[in-house]
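Researcher: Next sequence.
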Amino acid sequence: MCCGIVVTAAFTSCSKDDLSATSVIKDSTWPKTAFDKWLDRHYVQAYNIQLKYRLEDAETDFTYTLAPADVANSVKVAHIVLHTWLEAYDEVAGRHFTRQLAPKLLQFVGSPAMESDNRGMMGQAEGGMKITLFGINQLEINRSFLNNSYFQSMHHEFTHILAQNKNYDTDFQKISEGSYAPADWYAAGKTETDALQKGFISLYAMSEYNEDFAETLAFYLIYTPAEWAQKMTTADAAGTNGSAIIGQKLAMIRSYMQTAWNIDIDQLRTVIHRRMDEVLDGSVDLDDLSL
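Model: Next structure:
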């Protein structure tokens, strides 16, 4: 619902001296800070992406009690997202690809979005156009925090965007046909090990085939080769053939990304991990706001 303010003016006999040169309509914007100017250069001009780090009513989900993002942490996360996510896709697929397909709005929120079961949501996407990253004020500069809190969700949602633009082979649906559990994939007692041994990279992958596709690629990109190998070992630990099923899915995803987008997912993975290493070893100045 859109509300407007109606102003009624009564005109009486006034001289020109009564008029003020100052508008009574106040501009809701604020002077641009060094960070705002940096975002204009590196996000708006480079990718046509708006990054909002101030908590705005129009962009806020009132289902949750949320806190504004700390500016210093927002600067760091903006650098990390740029270097490890956007520029990784640039390096492998070209700036035009990233600029055309990346979500056009990123929002930073200081606190996690707390669910009724006391889980804190750290990432949320809306229709392929907006990604919100929560928990900015709890930022930790380590691989586990960054991948589990932010990049798994971001790669997952970007995979959905790619699949919406170019369809993948419907035979993917048949690999785990009959094993999806849309209504109770999150049921109490179910664990990641259960999912792996049934041929799913995560519990959420069990919800339906589109989520399975996105989860499989996202986790493949953020896991190191050693971490992925460990998951495959777990997938087969009970005499199950979970790793073979996940391998079938990954092969179809690899073919899709190469055929549809000319992206080698192994090259992309290597670039992502190299860039993450550069963040973690201090090679990237996360506080630099020079233009």
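Model: The two ends are 40 Å apart (CA to CA). Residues 22 and 154 are 45 Å apart (CA to CA).
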